[in-house]
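Researcher: I've been going back and forth with a colleague about how HAT C-terminal dimerisation domain-containing protein might be arranged in three dimensions. Neither of us has a model we trust, so I'd like an independent prediction. The organism is Aegilops tauschii subsp. strangulata, in case that matters for your notes. Sequence below.
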Amino acid sequence: MVQTDRHIHFRLVYRLIELALILPVATATIERAFSAMSIVKTELRNKMNDEWMNHRLVCYIERDVFASVDDIKIIQYYQQMRKRKGLLPRPLHDN
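Model: Here is an independent structure prediction for HAT C-terminal dimerisation domain-containing protein. You can compare it with whatever you and your colleague have in mind.
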């Protein structure tokens, strides 16, 4: 269809074909995400908030990337950070 330039005349048909070809990939990705969520979200962790759950799912789904990260470098990075705790100013008057 692209070689004969018919995709220009039949834009909606071409779009439908594109979506039909993409659908199995998108469905598999969503199924993989729900499978990971069922593994990460157990009965004990059923009440976790959405942000924390999202972070856990990213770590689980991308575990091969996280496995390649050197743990020692991460530990050293946080150990070399300056302390950010500061003393609060004393109140000017006591009530």
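Researcher: What would you highlight for our discussion?
Model: I'd start with this: The chain has a mean pLDDT of 76. After that, consider the following. Residues 6-79 form one domain.
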